[in-house]
Amino acid sequence: MSIISNRQIFLDTETTGINKTGVYYEGHRIIEIGAVEVINRRLTGNNFHKYLNPNRLINNESFKIHGISNHFLYNKPTFKEIALEFINYIKDSELVIHNALFDIDFINYEMSKLKIGIKSIENICRITDSLEISRKMFPGKRNSLDALCMRYKIDISNRKLHSAIIDAKLLSEVFLMMTGGQISLSFSKDNEKQKYQDYNVKNINKRESSLKIILANDKEILAHEKVIDLIKQKKGFCLWLKA
């Protein structure tokens, strides 16, 4: 795998739902893929967006989140029909995803059904989890995509439901702000390659601020995780698990 260091793909998916027990993605399908291309910190407009027919019913809990219905998807292509186009679009790039494990698990599950020799997209892309990076930058704070948009003053007032392509576009704006603050300016390839060798995030200590970051202790974290698990068990899905 030869990664094109200055090409990033910001990706998000929507699915039919998750399982309450067992492997959370097994038996469920991807119904929307949204991906936004950025080269040298420039939004190129070369985006990838597909709605997919899952050949199964969408869970009601998930429908409330994204508003995508089976009726809307009945004449859309299946994942199998767009798989090669998708692979060619993302291969050899840095794939940036918010809470990457969720989307990667679903994509790899879809790939496993095709028997095309790709067991994991980690073999054709470099995966960057923007949630992990944001947690290092803003410890103890909410780091969902919505929270980050608010933090960076990115307008989401028209975003009523989740949408893979809209969320991918928002993620690209947020991530570029997090990692430099400039979106459309060009840089030399050498500088870009060095910049994205790794993400050693350093917090900026603003002397003028008197606010202190108070981190949760182990007991508080455990209590929080129990509440999240309870919500997931009762509702079948918890937005915070994807935040």
UniProtKB/TrEMBL annotation:
Residues annotated as catalytic: H162 (proton acceptor)
Tell me the keywords, alphabetical order: DNA replication, DNA-directed DNA polymerase, Exonuclease, Hydrolase, Magnesium, Manganese, Metal-binding, Nuclease, Nucleotidyltransferase, Transferase
Q: Which reaction does it catalyse?
A: DNA(n) + a 2'-deoxyribonucleoside 5'-triphosphate = DNA(n+1) + diphosphate
Query: Taxonomically, which superkingdom?
Result: Bacteria
Which CDD domains does this UniProt record tie to the protein? DNA_pol_III_epsilon_Ecoli_like
Provide the GO biological process annotations. DNA replication proofreading
Please give the Pfam families that the UniProt record associates with this protein.
Answer: RNase_T (PF00929)
Which GO molecular function entries does the Swiss-Prot or TrEMBL record give? Answer: 3'-5' exonuclease activity; DNA binding; DNA-directed DNA polymerase activity; metal ion binding
How does the cofactor attach, per the note? Answer: Binds 2 divalent metal cations. Magnesium or manganese.
Would you indicate the residue range of the signal peptide? none
Cofactor field: Mg(2+); Mn(2+)
- Gene3D superfamilies reported in the protein's UniProt record: Ribonuclease H-like superfamily/Ribonuclease H
As recorded in UniProt, its EC number(s) are 2.7.7.7
Classification via PANTHER family? DNA POLYMERASE III SUBUNIT EPSILON
Job of this protein:
DNA polymerase III is a complex, multichain enzyme responsible for most of the replicative synthesis in bacteria. The epsilon subunit contain the editing function and is a proofreading 3'-5' exonuclease.
Subunit composition and interactions: The DNA polymerase holoenzyme is a complex that contains 10 different types of subunits. These subunits are organized into 3 functionally essential subassemblies: the pol III core, the beta sliding clamp processivity factor and the clamp-loading complex. The pol III core (subunits alpha,epsilon and theta) contains the polymerase and the 3'-5' exonuclease proofreading activities. The polymerase is tethered to the template via the sliding clamp processivity factor.
Q: What is this protein called?
A: DNA polymerase III subunit epsilon
Q: Which gene encodes it?
A: dnaQ
